[in-house]
């Protein structure tokens, strides 16, 4: 997945003139903090240098994960056309770009962010595109009230892991109250990220939410550690991205876990492909999470006709309409 051209251009403009060695050093420090999930009382991005490193090496990946999650919601709920959005822990505004790309009717977004540096950086990006009307608010969402009328689309992307564990449940309760229609939570696709998504999923189901994606059911997750539910999105690396990471390969795979819940159920819940499809001539094996709450491998061959064709076209993360699983 590529960044939308206008975002790509705005990011390139923000990064132009930055000394590459400094960007690479800042990117390495930032990646280290994220990998360790360090919570030492300071925001990971508190300086211009860190914000630029984020734009170079993290924004393309978080954008891809958020956009892929939105695509799954749009597939499950083709009639969903949010006009208002609330993004918590907005960073440089990643989710509003992805939402505008997915849902052209989006008209107004409120972005809540703790870091003034990130806000300043995001404001510059947003000013360079005909995005929905955007309002930024500086707040600490662990303690501050979310003071707004419920919004159609509420997002919390790559934020739960930065909050103290005791702050997560109350925040999710406030976010659900602020959700008029759909709430999406995205986390890194690690076992720890999946556990946070599982806890959020349980809490929201208990609050009356309907699961829209990726799970085709609201029963307990059938996966057990060391397995975990996650997906991957291939991300194109720009030249500066490669240089900042000291990487040769022009792409990377961003692993992510997510859950989308809504006030109304999705019309049809299809089985979800939860691992890379294994395809050989005339046969495809899919690991599926199914509407009856089970998960397992399913082998299809040419003899399965239309089902086989659909299975062949699918891959990790796809939803297959009933008939499979
Ligand atoms: C990894 S970034 C994700 C940014 C963006 N959502 C994305 O997907 O690219 C996490 C964001 O959460 C923000 N954040 C962390 N703790 C916060 C808090 N207590 N209140 C508000 N924002 C917070 C950080 O400043 C940062 O912008």
List each distinct ligand once: S-adenosylmethionine
The total beta strand count reads: 13
Largest sheet: 8 strands, mixed
Number of helices: 10
Q: Output the structural class.
A: alpha/beta
Radius of gyration of CA atoms, rounded to a whole number: 20 Å
| Beta-strand fraction estimate | 15-25%
Question: What's this, in brief?
Answer:
This protein is of the alpha/beta class and 325 residues long. The protein contains 10 helices and 13 strands. Helix 2 crosses helix 3 and helix 4 runs parallel beside helix 5 (94-102).
Can you walk me through this structure?
The chain is built from ten helices and 13 strands. Helix content is 37%, strand content 24%. It has helices spanning 5-15, 20-36, 48-57, 59-76, 94-102, 116-126, 165-177, 191-206, 239-245, 306-313; strands spanning 84-88, 108-113, 133-138, 151-157, 179-188, 210-213, 231-236, 251-262, 271-273, 278-280, 283-289, 295-301, 319-320. The strands form two sheets. Strands 1, 2, 3, 4, 5, 6, 7 and 8 form an eight-stranded mixed sheet that branches. Strands 9, 10, 11, 12 and 13 form a five-stranded antiparallel sheet that branches. With 325 residues, it is α/β, with parallel strands linked by helices. The chain starts with a helix and ends in a 5-residue tail after the last strand. The protein is globular. It binds S-adenosylmethionine. S-adenosylmethionine is lined by residues 43, 45, 59, 62, 66, 89-91, 94-95, 113-115, 118, 140-142, 157-159, 162-163. S-adenosylmethionine binds next to helix 4 and helix 5.
